[in-house]
Amino acid sequence: MKNIRDMLMESIKERIKKLESLEDVEKARVSILGKKGFLKEQFKKMKDIPPEERAEFGKALNLVKEEVERILSSKIEEFKASQKKNEALEKSVDLTIPGAKRSIGRLHLITQMIQECVEVFERMGFEVVEGPEIENTYYNFEALNTPQWHPARDLHDTFYIDENKLLRTHTSPVQIRTMELRRPPLRVISPGRVYRKDYDASHLPAFFQIEGLAIDKDISIADLKGTLENVIKSVLGEDKKVRFRPHYFPFTEPSVEVDISFPEGKSGWLELLGAGMVHPNVLRNVGLDPNEWQGFAFGMGIERLAMLKYGVDDIREFPRNSLNFLKLF
Amino acid sequence: MKLNVQWLKDYIDANDDIEKLADELTMSGSEVEEIEKPFEKLQGVVWARVVNVKKHPNADKLNVCVLNTGEKEYITVTSDLNVMEGDVVPFGPAGKASTADGKKIEATELRGVKTEGMMFSLEELGLEAHSDGVFRFKERVKIGEDVKKTLGLDLTTFELEITPNRPDCLSHVGLAREVSTVEKKPFKIPSPSVNLANKEEIDVEIESSGCWRYMAVRIDSVKVQSSPLWLKRRLASVGLRSINNIADITNYVMMELGHPVHAFDYDKIPNGKLVIRDAKKGEKLLALNSKEYEFEGGEILITDGENPLAIAGVIGGKESGVSLETTRVLLEIATFDPVKVRKASKKLNISTDASFRFERGVDANDAELVAKRLVELITSLARGYVVGFKDLYPHEMNERSVYLQKRKLDSYVAYTTKEEEVEDCFTRLGFKTEKEGDGWNVTVPTFRRDIMQDVDLIEEFARIHGLENLPQTRSLPFIFSKKNEWWNFKVKAKMAAAALGYYEAVTYPFVDPKIVERFYDVATLKSPKLINALSPEMSLMRPDLVIGLLEASAYNLKHQQKAVRLFEVGKIFEEEKEREMIAFISAGRLNEEDYTDKRNSEILNVKGDVEAFVDALHAKVDFSQKNIKGFEDGRSAEIILNGKVIGKIGEISREVLESLDVKVPIHYADVDLKSIYDERKSVRYKRYSQYPSSFKDLSMFVEKGRIKAEEILKIAKNSSPYVSDVKVSDLYRGKHIPKSVYSITITITYNSMEKTLSEDEINEAFTTLMETLDSLEGVTVRKVQ
């Protein structure tokens, strides 16, 4: 009996050998199991077989049929799985392909730096005020205790529109404009553009400053020191060392300059900003009694701050507006 | 101001640690910017003996010398025929030595003779302004020794930043006083024993109110010659070159005591008479620097009664100056009105060591000391004897007394000071204190004219006490503060612009009128011009942000950027007004890194960005097509808010692009930010329909020039009460249709607040609209379906 089965299997081996697709399986099924298929043909032959062998032959035929069905259905499974796998691959997306990126613009480093300072000051109760960039000489100099032939004017190379109008050389005129309009107590900061007729590798003819003013009954040098150290450390890092050095500005007395320690292990100090207690003459100029009110003021260069914070080593990057630069921050 | 540390030690036993000394000065207000070695570049020069001098075989005016430095013999060629055998000279061997200016000495050949080095003059040693020959040293010296060691040139100087309020620190004695205050050590001022009494009267008259004191001393029988080495060395160390003994002594005394003085050749003063008066307009003087100055009038002049001899406090005249032939000198020790000196210096555009000091204020009460010091030095270095003397002092300078309330001092420094420490501080500064009430009357010497009010004394206390030793608070007294809405609005606007894909630029507010000309009629433009601009390209305050952004775009395009999208928030300048604008500029790819979006910038994209931007700020603007100078015809419009023009949009004209060498189209828009701020709508909740909407598309051909899209949209919007929105959903231009026609598809949203609309209601409204539009001139509705 085994021989009959083997014989039958042998004769259909060729038909089930090369099954490479579902179509091949279907073809094989039709040719083996179909109405006119091989096995049907064999069943038809049964009547010619001697009756004593007939049962055995029929059994063998059934076994072969089962085996072929099993082989074919396992092939179908196999092909279906592979087809499914193929379909999944086809509909997949290679997500290592870089995304189709939309552009979000960025704010200029100057704006980011100003905003960072503004946020620190706002937390301390300071309010933003602004003033014009074309100023009267009065607001830029005289009101700030710097009369016309004062040697301190040497520190400010000035652009003039005419005899009485100039491009403000510092944000300090905003102090005067604010105090003329509002009574103390005051805590204001004023970011903005200022101008000096000075253009070389380390100076721009137009740059940004942030001015600050705090006027109250008992504001002291200790308050000035504490406020500025807090701001500098908030913006540039708690690890920075800050030093206060006596200096001179016509509109503050006492005046100080604030230095910070050089970044990354370099020794020495870097001048960062000028500050001081508001000069009594300045208070008098806006009608405040210096025996009643006192306070501090300061002015800080934004570019210098940004250069320190981000290691920008060429100040001319700021007005250049190269996208290579703008995209960095 | 340069301070020679060794020189300083003539007056005070200052800290030997150079770094510490520098730190002390810095922290008391005289900032040491640089610690320098002024003779650092002078290297490798040693003493050598001349062992042989021979005529140069090929040149009459040259000698060939052999020099011995103890170790080795060298050959050199010199044009100084006075060099003799046996002379001791500074010699710089080739390849090893360099001059005070840093020039390296190289081996060369002079007319066929090889030189192995160079003999140095005082000029090359950095000790003299000009030398005629080799320096021959007359004193005993070790051959082969470094000349810097022998001559004491290995010295240290400080470059100090002296603030304008401290002219008293512009001298070695003045800085010695500062160091003495900080280090709590005594210092000594020179006290020359010279008698100026009972001398001949000098004829001096003061007519100018700007001359506060004028002291004159006449010295006869002086011998003008080269200064001794020590004097040359000291002057050189502080950056002054030696001229002759008289000039050098006047400079030396200025650097020592801080009082600039002048020396006249007495024989060059007609009639020996000086008149100090204000200049008349048009008068002229040839000054010591060989330049002729013409006066505006009002400058203080030293005259001979007729003609100017010197510009008071600024510079002397060439004619009346001291020369090698001078035998009688007249010394001027004066004090002038600082404002008048500064005016003269500024108007004549001449700044000297003297004017620098006078315009900051020079003490009038040290004149006698200065005069005596001059006489002492001149009579010892140039011989001579004092013949005449005069002292006019019409504007007396008195010590000032300033009251300092202790309560105020304590309030400023934020701690309760001790009376002794305050008094000790002022005493060390040379001030006298006298207790009165809750404070002191502090008497301040005349060399400290900057001390005028109590706060000036507070500063003195703070800086001498040490700013780092003062307390530091951790919080300020609380006050209510407002927020600045306008500032916050601007920040929000910038964020919105960035969100639209634009990078913020910050450009210069002064622009090139040549570029402005392409957008405006410069002749009628009211924008302010700078009268002293850095260059013509930076001379006009911008009337428009377009200039700066165009330049920034051109820069980026030239540097191979494929997508340039920038915005700027900044002021534009009109006659009397500054307006804050926002501007957008766009060129090249819209989304460079989005490979699914290959679109390039178009005017309608920028318009869409402006609309999105204005929407985000809760305002609404209209666009009114109009040709604008500088933009392509037919591709620009005014931006209108509430009937007011607040901006513009357009494609930059080809001519402008060509002038900037730009090859791709650039689109630009700007809007007055303050107007948007002022007109922004308050944000309120509004109900919207809860029922489903229906959307209907309608396509049509539109003929440009016959009808505007705006009208079509308006008709659609008003076509039925059920229309809640009309949007453009497609726009087609190009192939298959004429260039004067575009195809537009609009999507109409129908809905109702009360119900779900029926198909019939919608179709009726839509059909009516379709018919209305189709009947319009220039519109052909495309029949689809």
What does this protein look like?
The complex is a heterodimer of chains A (329) and B (785). Chain A has 329 residues and is α+β, with helices and mostly antiparallel strands. Chain A has helices spanning 2-17, 22-33, 38-45, 51-91, 109-123, 137-140, 173-181, 221-236, 280-285, 302-310, 317-320, 323-326; strands spanning 127-128, 134-136, 165-167, 186-195, 206-216, 242-249, 252-261, 269-278, 294-301. In chain A, a hairpin with a 2-residue loop joins strand 6 and strand 7. The longest helix of chain B has 16 residues, at 759-774. In chain B, the strands form 10 sheets. Chain B has a 7-stranded mixed beta sheet with strand order 26-29-30-34-33-32-31, sandwiched between helices. In chain B, strands 5-4-3-6-9 form a 5-stranded antiparallel beta sheet, with no helix packed on it. Helix content of chain B is 25%, strand content 29%. Chains A and B meet through helix 5, strand 1, strand 4, strand 5 and helix 8 of A and helix 7, helix 10, helix 12, helix 13 and strand 26 of B.
Number of helices, where a helix is a run of at least 4 consecutive DSSP H or I residues of chain B: 20
Poorly predicted tracts of residues of chain A: none
Q: Whole-number radius of gyration of chain B?
A: 41 Å
User: Termini separation of chain A (Å)?
Assistant: 86 Å
The helix content of chain B, as a percent range, equals 25-40%
Q: Return the structural class of chain B.
A: alpha+beta
Strand content of chain B: 25-35%
**Largest beta-sheet details of chain A:** 7 strands, mixed
Overall pLDDT metric of chain A:
91
Helix and strand topology:
The complex is a heterodimer of chains A (329) and B (785).
Chain A: H1 2-17, H2 22-33, H3 38-45, H4 51-91, H5 109-123, E1 127-128, E2 134-136, H6 137-140, E3 165-167, H7 173-181, E4 186-195, E5 206-216, H8 221-236, E6 242-249, E7 252-261, E8 269-278, H9 280-285, E9 294-301, H10 302-310, H11 317-320, H12 323-326
Parallel strand pairs in A: 1-4
Antiparallel strand pairs in A: 2-3, 4-5, 5-9, 6-7, 7-8, 8-9
Chain B: E1 2-4, H1 5-8, H2 18-27, E2 31-36, E3 46-56, E4 59-68, E5 73-78, E6 88-93, E7 108-110, E8 113-115, E9 117-119, H3 147-151, E10 157-161, H4 172-183, E11 200-201, E12 203-206, E13 211-222, H5 229-237, H6 245-257, E14 262-265, E15 273-278, E16 284-286, E17 292-294, E18 300-303, E19 308-311, E20 315-316, E21 329-336, H7 338-348, H8 353-358, H9 367-381, E22 383-392, E23 400-405, H10 406-413, H11 419-428, E24 432-435, E25 439-444, H12 454-465, H13 485-499, E26 503-504, E27 510-511, H14 513-516, E28 540-541, H15 546-558, E29 563-573, E30 578-588, H16 603-616, E31 622-625, E32 631-641, E33 644-652, H17 654-659, E34 666-672, H18 673-679, E35 694-703, H19 709-717, E36 723-732, E37 741-750, H20 759-774, E38 779-781
Parallel strand pairs in B: 11-22, 12-15, 26-29
Antiparallel strand pairs in B: 1-10, 2-10, 3-4, 3-6, 4-5, 6-9, 7-8, 13-21, 13-22, 14-21, 15-18, 16-17, 18-19, 19-20, 23-25, 24-25, 27-28, 29-30, 30-34, 31-32, 32-33, 33-34, 35-37, 35-38, 36-37
Helix pairs in contact in B: 5-6, 6-9
